[in-house]
Amino acid sequence: MNLEQIKESVQYVKERIDITPEIGIILGSGLGDLANMVEERVNIKYEDIPNMPKSTVVGHAGQYVFGKLNGKNVVMMQGRIHYYEGYPMEILALPIHIMKYLGIKTLIVTNAAGGVNEGFIPGDLMLIKDHINFAFTNPLIGKNEEDVGPRFPDMSNAYDKDLIQLGEKIGKDMNIELKKGVYVMMTGPTYETPAEIKMIRILGGDAVGMSTVPDVIVAKHCGLKVLGISCITNMAAGILDQPLNHKEVIETSNRVKDKFVKLVSEIVKEI
Ligand code: HPA
To answer: Where do the annotations place phosphate binding (predicted)?
Structure first.
């Protein structure tokens, strides 16, 4: 997407809202409930926005939700666009760019993920300290828009250290136990094999999922501060003697959503 197209999409949204969001929040599978806490809420469906692809996954509503959360102007993505849906990586950049050019400075990315670290249990929340891009492609491949960000963005601090510290402090204050670890993106849509999970663990991964990494790359490129939170919805393949399915993912995220909602809304208040 070039800057003209981004601006066209931003213009459509701007005409329909009367706040300037300062924080963007991407809600992962089963975590869309946080949007219900938004006051003075305005929803804008992705499919109505020029140039935007549509989300097709069950459990993903496919809209931006604008309004106030704990006194802060926010924009949430209730449902994200995934690479496995068949879109070219570069299109995944647009929803992030729209939020950037609407005015956000910070992006909170959340996801459902499989626990690779054997010290995790389903229902754990993990602050993401770093990631490994096992999708082996990148949303920034192609012509670089110098006005958006540099050709070769630094990823050595992709997940903002101050925000991680804030998350840890708030977790402690609220008595919510938080894990911390490395998120690994696989393309999906298959869940991983036990051998792949073993490899990911050996290479330093703590959680595995099918999203987030492209969002974070794009966010970092255009100068946003990022906080990432994974909801460990299941143990990754081969750890327990049981098959994996999307139903378990949704059931676990439903079980922990109260904890998740409390944590994220408190973080938003303190940012
Ligand atoms: N693997 C990949 N993606 C996931 C998983 C998993 O085990 N759980 C939730 N999203």
So the answer is: 29, 60, 80-82, 112, 211
